[in-house]
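Internal ticket - ligand job 379, IDC:
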Amino acid sequence: MDNFTKFKNLCLIGLLFLLTACVGGLKSHEKPEGFVSPVEKYGKIRLVEIDGRRRLCKENGEPVQLKGMSTMGLQWEEWILSEEAFDALAYDWRCDVVRLAMYITEGGYKDDPFGMLAKVEKGIKLASDRGLYVIVDWHVLTPGDPNANDYLNAGKSLSQYSAIKKDHPEYSGPELFFAYLSQKYGDLPNILWETANEPNKLSKSWSESLLPYHQKILNAVRLYDKDGLGDNIVICGTGTWSQEVDAPIGNEASDPEGQVMYTVHFYAGTHGQWLMDRVKNALDRGLAVFCTEWGTSEADGGQNGKVYIAESEDWLDFFEANGVSWCNWSLARAAQSSAAFKPNAASFPKDLDGDGVPNWKDSDLSASGTYVRGRIRGE
Ligand code: IDC
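stdout (structure tokens):
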């Protein structure tokens, strides 16, 4: 073979390799035939008052209930942010919504603002590409008071925020974070902002501490989301690890378009009827409620390995009857019974049955994951 022929052959092989890679790559990220995404079905979701209740509704005004999954802390379980995993969550699990849990302390955004912001933006893209709703969660946990300096100073020095900081030198860390994301993604119909996961160990009441906190973030969100396409929903965490869901009755955050919800969190092995009664009270008195986090386990995430299926059923039936949307904790491969996957589960689901949809093996799913996937799929 002369040199020219060798060169030609090499080029051909290279070209073939590239083509195979492209086709293979496209295949796993294509949406399956006949799949209609949640965003295609429901459009820009919004809160509407119907018979004295504030209901989450489709763009056309009909009530809708969203069901889906929360990630584990993205500083620990980043593997879930892949095309394959989101394909499986969208097309096989049929999630309507994915929540991106961005811890601030616990080794999260406070330590690595640049890296954590990038993870959140990657998650927004993965969800949006598949027409899923996505909740960006400012995951307050320990020390617990969102007004603590650990939270208020987090990420303030990020260069991405310099223009906003120039106009608003008074902004705290969460104001900068949400203002930046609102400016960049507020035009998307599928984004919801969760301004504090689980406030706890507060020394003051709702109206003295959480209300002014949420109001500040809400104001920054509204100021920087200038697309004129209608406001994205803001979800406010409530006291005692988001169990004081009725505290905002008569003391709501003020919002021009009234697109504010309040969250309740429950763990089936720990929280029972008394917490459902609070949710019912909140709904009856006109609050919009979104359960952005719940687990099939006890509140410690399931260190004893137990799952509480009967109790979970009661809660999910209650939510269904009352149109309360939810995300389950969590998309983790971990030795805790709330985790949806077994510790040794595959990080990249594969197309096992040749239908073009990547999926995890049944044996990759924990008891919780198996149950919750079924409820999301409506089985
Ligand atoms: C837990 C995780 C666990 C992690 C811990 C950090 O499951 O792996 O070590 O956080 O403190 C919540 C919180 C959520 C908790 C979860 C389970 O929002 O961050 O995750 N939980 O304990 N509220 C009630 C339970």
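Auto-summary: The chain is about 35% helix and 15% strand. The mean pLDDT is 94.
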